[in-house]
Write a structure and sequence with these properties.
With about 110 residues, the chain is an all-beta fold. It has no helices and ten strands. Strands 2, 3, 6, 7 and 8 form a five-stranded antiparallel beta sheet that branches. A three-stranded antiparallel beta sheet has the order 1-5-4, with no helix packed on it. A two-stranded antiparallel sheet has the order 9-10.
Length: about 110
Amino acid sequence: NNGDSACESSIPIVSIFGTGFGTFQDSQASRVGDTACESSHWTSDSSISCQAAAGAGPALSLVVTAGGQDGLAEASAQFSYFAHRVLSGHPNNSPTTGGIIITLTGQNFGHF
């Protein structure tokens, strides 16, 4: 939802700086890669805040749509999600018949 409400959540807020974002909150929207932001908040002609949606991937383009035109970020202004990482699994062996529950611990598995 790209409304004019303030971005509030534990989901990352990405500040996008550039030019030509318009003179008031109207039809501006933003996205990370191909995924629309949960919300976008226009700050000025040169600044928009984007509440990033859940996603994955490195070096994603930041895109702002203003006045019906998409503008891409410079190559140096990209956004990356942290990759998930498995640190351990327990138990670390099983009978060949399977059917056991393995508990994985790690980082960046997401949230619900």
